[in-house]
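Exercise 7. Given the encoded structure of a 74-residue chain, write a plausible sequence.
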């Protein structure tokens, strides 16, 4: 399984959904900024990657989050 697929699966588990819409905002799924920060910290630990505050400030959608993580994993 590609690592980005693992991230998608983690998002689905965290949101308790079977499918995610990458164009949906994080708020659509009930996530606030603290939830996003906590999830990013989990990803940093799980995948041994690091995000700067500048990297994460523009995350608005599930797709934005996945794209950012994909760049870090590449």
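Solution.
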């Amino acid at each position: 399984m590609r690592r980005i697929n693992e991230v998608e699966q983690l998002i689905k588990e965290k949101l308790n959904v079977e499918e995610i819409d990458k164009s949906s905002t994080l708020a659509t799924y009930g996530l606030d900024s603290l939830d996003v920060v906590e999830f990013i910290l989990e990803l940093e630990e799980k995948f041994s990657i690091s995000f700067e505050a500048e990297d994460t400030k523009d995350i608005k959608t599930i797709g934005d989050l996945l794209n950012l993580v994909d760049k870090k994993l590449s």
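Remark. Residues 54 and 68 are 11 Å apart (CA to CA). Students should compare their own answers with the one above.
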